[in-house]
Amino acid sequence: MKFQVLDIIPHLQNPVTGEIVSTAERLNQVVETARRAEELGFDSFAVGERHAGEFISSSPTTVLALVGSPEQIIDKILSYHSLYEHDLQSISLPTTLPFEQQLEILERFALEVIPAVRAAAPTTAAFTAAWQEWHAAHERHRADPRGFLAVTHLHWLGHSHRPGGAAAPLDGVPGIWSVENDVVTVVLGVGESLLRDGHELNPDAAGATVTFGPIAERDGLDLKSGDAVVELAKRGGEYIVRPRHPGNPLLNEYRGTPAYAPDASFAVNGTFVPFESPRPTTVGAAVEGIQHVYEAPGELHFTLAGQDLVLTAFNGHAPGTLSVLFTDATSGKTTYAANRSLTVVPDGDGSVVLDFNRAVNLPCAYTDLATCPLPPAENRLAVAIEAGEQIPNERREQR
Asked: What does each of the 399 residues of the chain score in pLDDT, given as a tens digit?
């Protein structure tokens, strides 16, 4: 990060005393400020050009010539242009103050503010680089040819969706499917192929009947049919079948998810407060009529935007992690309306960092063929969390 002093040389009255220095004295102040800025280690001094009565600079190079020799001025101009390759911060002094106070402000800025900012800059750069690396990895995972962007159909096998649990063929997958007593049955016809763990379930292609289950809630298994992966899972107490095909247009046309620029102020410290015993918590789903039940081991307490906040946490996918579903004041505006998710890892003493820059969209933000859970009522925050992933391009185009 580079710092420069910028003076467009206003020639104004003191708002308190009504006094105004002479033109010559004002130009001398500019020269003295430039020389002092160089002594204090500023990267550049700049003047601007204005054609108005209250400004007395119509030729910046002439003014700069007062500061040093022509050779020095040429060096300064070349140096100044090279600064555009950096994060250049300009400061302007309050010229209506007595000149001695202006120089005092300049000195304090150089000796106190600039070192502190530069000391923090590597941390900021490292924070940004770590986020970029994480988000790139998350995007690669989302664009996996067998991921949720490849889902082409969502089939429900339960009695509430099929009267009597009748067996029926399903689009995008081989066989006739049915469910009874928590067991899924698939009747494969002649020539139909379905593999599990690389083993053909219709080995002689003459036809076969295979069964699966019981499958635990939120669990599932993957079968294979040609290029497609066939997901058999249980959601909301019902069995679903979702074929995933690498040729799905949603996957092939995916061009990334917009996100807020990483901001370290949205990575806040908090505390995990466990319940005496895990609390079963029922939440709604992106699919109407479905409910999910999660065990909540405790709450996350933290402060953001000057407010003390609490979020109910569920057990995460990986051991030792917690998952938080939430909405906030940006939901439905810049971020997806229904939900976002954040994974956190509490330390042994309960301390935790909630980095909302890593708040991500769930599959329902991209496709209607998802059964994502909604946040519990207490996780609908009133603050605006302008961090993390935003509304996907696919949904923006539908608005």
From this structure: 678 888 888 888 877 788 888 888 888 888 899 888 888 888 888 887 666 667 776 666 666 666 654 444 444 444 444 444 446 678 888 877 888 888 999 899 889 888 887 776 667 888 999 999 999 999 999 999 999 999 999 999 975 655 555 789 999 999 999 999 999 999 999 999 999 999 999 999 999 999 998 999 989 999 999 999 999 999 988 999 999 999 999 999 999 999 999 999 999 999 999 999 999 999 999 988 889 999 999 999 999 999 999 999 999 988 999 999 999 999 999 999 999 999 999 999 999 999 999 999 999 999 999 999 999 999 999 999 999 999 999 888 665
In 3D space, the residue among 128, 124, 89, 82 whose CA is nearest the CA of residue 1 turns out to be 89
Residue 243: closest CA among 306, 295, 169: 169
Residue whose C-alpha is closest to residue 347's, from 246, 236, 271: 271
pTM: predicted TM-score of the whole model, two decimal places: 0.70
Which SS3 state, helix, strand or coil, does residue 320 take?
coil
> How far is CA 207 from each of CA 175, 193, 229, 277, rounded to the nearest angstrom?
9, 9, 20, 50
Q: Name which of 321, 331, 329, 297 is nearest 311 in CA terms.
A: 297
Q: How far apart are CA 222 and CA 239, in angstroms?
A: 13
- Burial of 164-191, coded b for 16+ CB within 10 Å and e otherwise, reads eeebeebebbbbbbbbeeeebbbbbeee
At residue 169, what is the residue type? Answer: P
Residue keyed to tokens 């069964």: 211
- As a whole number of angstroms, the distance between CA 143 and CA 327 comes to 24
